Queue: 4 jobs
Job 1
Amino acid sequence: MDRLVDLLPELWAATAETLYVVSFSLLLGGLAGLLVGLALYATRAGSLFPNRVLFAALNVVVNFFRPIPFVILLAAVQPLARALGIPGIGPEFGIFAITIASLFAISRIVEQNLLTVRPGVIEAARATGASRSRILFRLLPREALGPLILGYTFIVVALVDMTAIAGAVAAGGLGEFAIVYGFKQFNPWVTWAAVLVIIVLVQAVQFLGNALARRVLRR
């Protein structure tokens, strides 16, 4: 217990590092995943911009990367990160790997939530003269906003989990803190302190996401 008290500054620093990695990964992966998800929705048969070849290509890429366990993806993308000038360890590498993993997960969530929008809403918009691009980039995200918020909330929780896993390859954050100061030094107090902080972060994200989604869905 005394060791945990001594390590409190490192614990708060690791918490801040986790929030940093999650925030940047969500920003990069969230935007890229949104665009890929919109493309998947728009190019499927019978949609706004049907394109069988492009849809098939996107679908194959997403289905290829999405099932890869994150711990394996970490090792797989390390050479690519180094080739791009990104260190193979540290928070920057964590952001790079988590962005790739979240991109494909988010794209599928976006596509599935857009598919829940009733066809009548799209038909009514087309009847009023709305362009296909306006429908895709403005109407559909607004109509599916509540489910999208819940989907992104799920992703943020997954990102927190990924940062903990990334700690196994010295990518910083609470995962590395728990491994270095807890697991390797046989100190369960330190390990469980990191676990509790992660639980608090996850519960806070889930609460805020659920509250925001309820507010949107009641409009």
Note: The mean pLDDT is 89.
Job 2
Amino acid sequence: MKIYVVSGLGADFKVLERLEFPENCELIFIDWLIPEKNEPFYSYVERMAEKVDVSEPFSLLGYSFGGIMVQEINKLKPAQKVVIMGSIKSDKEKSKFIKTGEITKIPRIFPVGMFNDKAANVYSVVRKLFDPKNPKILQYFRVRDPYYLKWSVEKVSEWKFEEIPDVIQILGDKDIVFPIKYSKPDYVIKGGTHLFPATKSKEVSKILKEVFV
């Protein structure tokens, strides 16, 4: 079984490197693409989905913003299983903080320069969003193209989606990006912050081995 994997916003696959899967699974990572200027979201999803081979059975796995992305890809290329970690099934599960961005359109007026990785405020914002107690947060934050980061924040705040019942959701009970109180996850990682795939890899691996049998 091939599993196509999309990591989180601005994150590479280092955050997922400790996870273990059944031996019969072949992982194929889909790297984040840099959005074209004024590219519609559906067009970006189509480009991300190009790597998915539908000639044989496959599953999709997404972390954080990657969870949103694999659900969008699933609409174009339906998978046998869709698993999301540290992510949401629909726009109804957004936190009040993210909904505020959607209503006010504030992410749209952020200057691209705000997302420059040399700016001190990016470090503070990103660290708070992912895991305020983890001093190694920036080792996971590798995709730092300012336009991509601004675009991604906009798309998360604007995302509209009807829940797909079969999507399997794994959430940490200490996640402040996508708080568990707004969702009804299939699996809960006790003490898991938004970085639970890295910090609670044994617990997550056990679940993944049950899901991908």
Note: The mean pLDDT is 83.
Job 3
Amino acid sequence: MISVFNIADAPAVVTKGHYGTSLIVEISFSDEALLNWLKTVKEPYPLLLLDAAWIERSPEHIKIIQERKLPTGLLGPEDSVDKPIDLAVVQKNINIYEKHLQETPLWFATRNHQYSQDLQKNLFQQQMNILSPSLIWKGEKTPKLQKGDFIFISLHQNNPISFKELNTFLQQNKFMSIEENIFGYKVQTKKSP
């Protein structure tokens, strides 16, 4: 059985929860430090939004993500109202995600956190929930967090955040899963015999 859910009954971009704060980490670049972090990150796990090209070139990372059951979603290319993204490119990215992770992504965000109407409709029909940050953390001092915030962190090639800073940020703040933040309860997974 595959669990899917749409947060809204029409295409919508979710930017905030209700019950706490959630951490979302965008990953499009990796090195040995990321691999070590994936092996040691503690619960509650942040949601990892994975770039399709990164998924294809990072089988060792994907294996650890799957073994540890770290929550993931898909990080898509940039989109905008002026220059909408080609939906065929988005579908190709979804196919790459499904091939390597053996499931459909439940969560989706574009790199620039902008969403055309066509993209919103397309993802809604595929039962994917669109996320956008309440706050973007770039490694500076801890921002003032509010209840319901989705804090995004980007681990891209040109991003200066160290994993030491990230771990300190995780320890200094109390985070919860996206589902818990939105719905107010923990999602438990059952193992079939």
Note: The longest strand covers residues 22-27.
Job 4
Amino acid sequence: MRIPAHSVCTAIRDDIVAGVYERGSRLTEELLARRYGVSRVPVREALRTLEAEGFVVTRRHAGACVAEPTEQEAADLLEMRMLLEPLGAARAAQRRTEAHLKVLRGLVRLGQERARRGNSEDLRSLGGWFHETLAQASGSPALTSTLAQLRHKIAWMYAVEAPANPAESWAEHGGIVDAVARGDSERARAVMALHTERATVAHRLRFPGGGDRPERVRTSQHPVNMTGVRH
């Protein structure tokens, strides 16, 4: 049975994000095909996709290698997310379905329950599902795909500290869902902007300046305008 290239792509991407392949290391079609139990054809297609996404680069005399993003490139990703997540929330308020709301509310309930118990691993997974579902509720495949790529690349480049007050973080998630349920796109945009700005501070570059100590991420130099936001 032929393994789809997108499945191979997902497997390689996940391993890059997990650090299985070091930055700058070669990715040979033969070794990848052997590792994932496929032919070289889907591996070749997957590498082309990963190069377009920025996870892989092709170097002369070396072939495909894991990319080595700069600190500026990493910082740009966080700024892009701070712009696009609020847009996604605003679109979700206009286009969400009852099914989306049911899932989002369920995730908030679970998140608030886990926050009380202090289970950080569960909270990380629930947070990812929440943002993925919200992006899907935006009704824009292009925006959903872009945000998914941003999440993968940010997870690759940054370590994230658990929030000091997870209950507060999940209260913000609840506020976003409330605004989306009411169809209040401006409120959804503003609350998500505040939430994303706060979350960004917890990100630490995994390899700042080539070193091995995470570096605190600076907050955006363009503060979020919260005028008119009700708390």
Note: Confidence is low (pLDDT under 50) at residues 210-231.
